[in-house]
Structure formats: structure tokens, C-alpha cells
## 1
Amino acid sequence: GESVGLHLPTLSVQEGDNSIINCAYSNSASDYFIWYKQESGKGPQFIIDIRSNMDKRQGQRVTVLLNKTVKHLSLQIAATQPGDSAVYFCAEQYNQGGKLIFGQGTELSVKP
Amino acid sequence: NAGVTQTPKFQVLKTGQSMTLQCAQDMNHNSMYWYRQDPGMGLRLIYYSASEGTTDKGEVPNGYNVSRLNKREFSLRLESAAPSQTSVYFCASRWSGGETQYFGPGTRLLVL
């Protein structure tokens, strides 16, 4: 069945470094992808999204890259800060109605 | 705007008890969703409501029922709780003209 998976379940980075969180998806028909940040005890918070007709999209300190050839999605966080420590989820959507398929999540730990 | 709100924040049930989880959004969104989140796993869709008056099953609907009370409110009912339903439950909503789902803070449910 369809699945969205993450290559690295945990990632530890030094404050100020750039972080890269990776995600693989299996459904080539997926046309929308989204990254969420979830802090402990809270609900997922939208970070950035990208449609399948784009390869790259930038936000404030974050960039999402989409490689449809290898069905790979990545989230880049520039100048990582302690407040970026959280679990990051990618999700894909492949039909109308907004049903998202989530990956397991990657825990990002930022060392001061 | 409060966004998406959920009640209660935390609940302990005995096996066989019933309860209803409440969700409300004040963003005038058409679509609403219920997910569960278990340790080490991403969010899984239980039920969703594409618009007021409609509900559909998601990935893991067994043991649950839902009611789209009006455009603002979408409730999730456990008729006879089981320990396997111990989880964190998240409600989300989405505007019909967009793709992004916005999440509530979650309800932590423990079934003994």
C-alpha cells in the first residue's frame, strides 16, 4: 500500500548549523506534500508545503525540495535554533478530499 | 481566532466505557478530520467530513463513530472503549479552497 517513510528517525545538530530532514514517498500519483512540526504535547503545526508541479519552495529559514524521479522530499532548516527541536512529519496527498498520508516522523534535537 | 479546539485534553476510561471527543473550529472551514497518533507512528486518519452533512471512513475507522454536528463541530465517539484505543487523538480542519490542514492540540486518551 501507499506509505510515506523517513530515512532518519533521529537527527542531532549543533545550533547554527543547517538541518536536512528526508522523506520518501511511494505513490507517484501524489500531487501535494506538506511538512509539519510537532512539539512535545502539542498538535502538528504547518511549516511549508509544495505541489507536484514544483521542485523547490522556500519559506522563512525553511526550504522544501521535491524530487519526483526518485520520490523523495526533503526539508532544509537554515541556521537551526533550539526552538526548532521537535518531531517533523512529512505527509502526501494523492486525491481530492484532503486525505493525508503521514510518515513516522523525525525527531530533531538541537544542541546549544 | 482560537483555530481548532479539542475537549477534553486528557481522559482515562475503563474498558467498555463510552465517551465523545469534541472538536470545534472557528475558521469557517468546510472539511474536518479525526486522526490518532500512536508512539513511533505517524498520524492515521480515522474519519473525515468533507463538508457539513457528510462523513467518510479513513484508514482506521473500526471502533469509532463520528458526527458532523454543524459546520464548526465534528465529534468522535467511542461506544465501548478498548485498551487498543489508548492514543492521542487530533482533530484537523481545512478550507475547501486550500490544501493545508490545521490541527488542534490533541486529546490524550488512556483506556485501562
## 2
Amino acid sequence: DAGITQSPRYKITETGRQVTLMCHQTWSHSYMFWYRQDLGHGLRLIYYSAAADITDKGEVPDGYVVSRSKTENFPLTLESATRSQTSVYFCASREGERRNNEQFFGPGTRLTVL
Amino acid sequence: AQSVTQLGSHVSVSEGALVLLRCNYSSSVPPYLFWYVQYPNQGLQLLLKYTTGATLVKGINGFEAEFKKSETSFHLTKPSAHMSDAAEYFCAVMDTGRRALTFGSGTRLQVQP
């Protein structure tokens, strides 16, 4: 399927466990992003990547790790999940440097940490 | 640093009434501004964007927004609300360095029959 996909769509885990959220895009967009959505905060940037093997922190990176060995994939790992990481996570991608290029969003992963 | 403020976390209108969702931004450079819509349990979909040029921007589903530099605003409007417009709406500004978006906290639009 063309576009941007996320898996799993729903995940329940326990405090202290490692969790990896997957993101895959078929457009070969250079930029990819991870956001989390929490009530009252809108979406906040966790990490972003400008190209394969280039990643950098966003506004709320603590407790998260990312990698980007291939252009099309951008997994997000919670190394030791905490309840405060219960959220909806959105992956996004965009092409190139032009500021007016659209950013496309995946359907989201709803993560619950018990 | 850029920021976005959306006034009103919840807005309720009657079907057929004017929709006005407010957005104010802060940016040290000429801003690129976006409105996204999110339907329940879905991702975000671009409604419209302002980059340069005409300050009145038309988007999908009959929505439009006007960029007003003097007021640092980018309010979203629709002349006549439809039941299908019920959703959450996010205003965002482009981060020039990271090419990421800085979002407002969102406005949930409810449309009453």
C-alpha cells in the first residue's frame, strides 16, 4: 500500500518494558518525524530525521530512541516504558527542504502503559 | 522559537452557521502556517496552508483562512457548517530549521443539528 503506515495501531504494555513502534513510508521522503499527541498539548515533536542515518531530538525526546538505517523506515523505541508515555503516537514524512512541502501523517499508534 | 495558540479548546456551532476557529502564532521569521483536521481515530489531514503570496487561502471542504501579519493570526473559517465538519482542528507553524511542525493545542468543533 502506498503512503505511510504505522504498526501496531494499538498497544498495551507494562511499566519497564521495551516497546518499539514502527513507521514505514513508500514515497522515499527524506524527512520523517515522530510526534506524540496528548490532551491539551496538541502534537509535540519527539524526534526527527532529515535522511537515513541522520536523526535529532525534538521537544520531548527523553525516554525514547530512534534509528533510521533505511529511508523508508523510522522506528521509535521506548527503552523502559513509563505511564507518562501513554499517548497516541504519530509518524509523519515530508519531501525535501522546501518549506511549503506538505507533511503527511500516519494513522497513529495508541499506546497504553499500565 | 515559534509557537501557536488556539483560542477555545471546544467550539460548538449549529449546522449551517459560520465556523470560526482562532489561531495566533509567534515566529521570528516569515511564517509558513497550516491547518490540519483530525477525525476520530484517524491521522491528520491537511486542510490548507499559507506560504507566501495571497493572504486568503482556500482549502478543502469549503474552509479558508486569512493570514494577518499585523495581528499574527491565521483564523480558520467556513461560511456554513456541516455535520461532517465535526472533528478536531490543529493550527501549526513550520519550524524553519527542522522542517517539523509546531502545533497548537487543538480545537474540537462540535456541530449541532
## 3
Amino acid sequence: ELKVEQNPLFLSMQEGKNYTIYCNYSTTSDRLYWYRQDPGKSLESLFVLLSNGAVKQEGRLMASLDTKARLSTLHITAAVHDLSATYFCAVGGSGNTGKLIFGQGTTLQVKP
Amino acid sequence: DTEVTQTPKHLVMGMTNKKSLKCEQHMGHRAMYWYKQKAKKPPELMFVYSYEKLSINESVPSRFSPECPNSSLLNLHLHALQPEDSALYLCASSQDESGTPLDPLHFGNGTRLTVT
């Protein structure tokens, strides 16, 4: 059974600081996604990672994938308040793109 | 704005009521999904429709009944729900069920359901 674990589950950080969120998964998968969710809102797709060593960057966020270690990271550079949200990683089971198994989510709070 | 539209945004219903949640997308996607999300928890898959046919039912109780009238619409019929069914119900779509891992799920804004 595929399991996905994120850590930390809660992260409070100062503006301007750097930090990394980790996502471990238990069985082989050919795709990993990062989503952002603001309180009471839907999920917004941030990154799609498909291959070992894949690195994607958008603004202050950078995601990477190590399929051998079954580990993805979401690195936050020089955090700003607008990044405050809950971040989920999600791993796809084989075949079906829609059957995603989500991590528990990391709630990020960026303080001025 | 999301390209997947869900109505209503909020719904309060009693345990004896019958109600329906609606979802619509016009991206030409052929796979549509229902996810359930409890507060401070990740989304959990309920149903998958592929080319208007139910392909996955994640052992969801029969008080939840999905329907896909056409490729753009997805409904979730609710009957005799319990208070523990209160949650955010998210609809999502993707190009199709089996291919294109590059295409992430596109989520709607959800319906916040409260069962009293």
C-alpha cells in the first residue's frame, strides 16, 4: 500500500528565511505532484515531477525528486507572507493519473 | 479562477435530506473525480469516472451516489448522511484516466457540506 509522509506538518518561519519541506513515499511511483491550498480554498497545482533528479522552480519555490530515495523536497527561499498556505505532496499510483495519495500536508506560516 | 466549477459552495443538510452536489468542466477532460477532505486533513479519493463510466469506487458508503450525465458534468447525490460526513467535497478533472502524467488534476473550489 502506497503511503506518503510529509514533514514537518507545521512550519512557522520568519520572512526572508529559507526552509525545506520533505515528502517521503513508500513504493515506486512514476509521478509526484506538489499542490498549494489556502484556507477554505481549493488545491492549486505547483509542480509536476516525473523523473529522477527532476528539479522545477517557480519564484521562491523549488521542488526536486529523488526516485531512488523515494523523496521529494520543496525548498522555500527568502520566504514572504504570501507563501503562507498548506502544501501537499501527492504521489500517483501506477497507471491511473487520478488516484493520487496525498501526504498529510505542511501548514506554512510566514511571519513578518 | 478555477476551470472546474462546483455548486453549491456551501450546503447544510439534515440527516434525512436528499441533496446533490454538482461539478462542471469545459476543458474537454475525460476523467472526473470526487475527493473528500476533512478539516486539516489531506483529500481522499472517493470516485473516478473515466469516459463517463465509473472506474473506481473507493469503498464509499452507498449514501453517496455519483452520476456522470455527460463528459462535462459530474454529480454526487447525497442521502441519509451522518454528521461525520461533514467535509469539503472536491471535484477534479484530468485529460484522461490512464495517460499523460504531466497533466495534474484540476480541482474545483469545493462544496463545504455540513450535516446536522
